[in-house]
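tool_call: predict_structure(chain=1)
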Amino acid sequence: MPAARAADTLIHREWQVGGVTREALLSVPPKAHTAPTPVIFAFHGHGGSMQHAAELYHYHTLWPEALVIYPQGLRTVGPLTDPEGVRDGWQHGAGALGDRDLKFFDAMWASLKKDYDVDEHRIYAAGHSNGGGFTYLLWETRGDLFAALAPSAAVVSPQAVPFLKPKPVLHIAGRNDELVKFIWQQRTIEALRRVNQCGVDGQPYRKIGTLYPSKLNAPVATYIFPGPHAYPAVAPALTVAFFQEHTKP
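tool_result:
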């Protein structure tokens, strides 16, 4: 399915969270009511939308057996690009904005468990830029839920690192990222290797990435590309393949 058409067949859903209407697009496979179904939460970047995320990531076209949810953010200050907060995004840390987006996540998760036969051993989260930062925040605050995560063009704060429980993670970064500097992302990758007890020597991963094996069965994979602050075309397939390799014990 071409990316431009990837959002056409999705289901629109709404939730009331703290008196605010929150929304998302869902791809629901036919067997989601009767068979354990993996779930991917996919978060757009600052200034993005659920429609654009569905088109850019199109995880549901690559793993049609998974239930994929593309949530919509709210107006949020972007320290690097949107100081007045006129565009949509996600809270940047635990406790920020009254935890409005963590509460939204909790509402989505509760309804998915109620409405579908979700496989709680195969729950995943991914996002680009501010969405990648929110993916790291979910790891920090809701880490027990996930089997693996895949942030792109994002960093984890040093204050959050002690709260990260070892989890398989794929980090995607552009060497020429003009917003989230590559050196910042390198520090995040180094922190993740320490958390997951990985060595410093990586091995080739799916021909384009690098995999750092973990003593805890929580490898760190990276895809570093010679580009800017962007979500590369190969990232969706690489992300889905990484998720499919990992199931929570």
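agent: Residues 3-244 form a domain with the Rossmann fold fold (CATH 3.40.50.1820). Proceeding to next step.
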